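Lab notebook, bench 4. Still working through the backlog of constructs that have no structural model yet. Next entry is a single chain of 125 residues. Request: give me the structure tokens for it.
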Amino acid sequence: MIQGNDPGFYERVVQRIGWIIVALGLAGAIGTAIWKGVSSGFAFLIGAAISYASFRGWRYVVDALGPNPKKPNPGLYVLRLIAVLAGAWVIIKFLGLNLAAAALGLLVSGAAVVLEIIYELICAN
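Model written out:
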């Protein structure tokens, strides 16, 4: 059943996806740290954090396109994203962290969206 008439549906979905990203990021970081070492786990966590920031940014884009658009400052978002990416690059480059683990962390938001879709297919009323 499509939940189009429920005004809180979108907010609940976005909130669940955010929690799934956090859970996958932490679980992935812990698993990677156990499997490949602490530095790889930290690199995965950095990638997951960037993935979460990207998800939040896309949410602002969607909110700006909706029926009651919120007016986010796109320049501020771009500057924030550049700062996060630059910080992550510096941390990964100078600490010699595993680039592959960081790249896998970037996939966390996509996995969270897929898990939310599966949840909605299974648990939809």
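Notes after review: The chain has a mean pLDDT of 84. The helical segments are 9-36, 38-65, 74-95, 99-105, 108-123. Flag for follow-up if needed.
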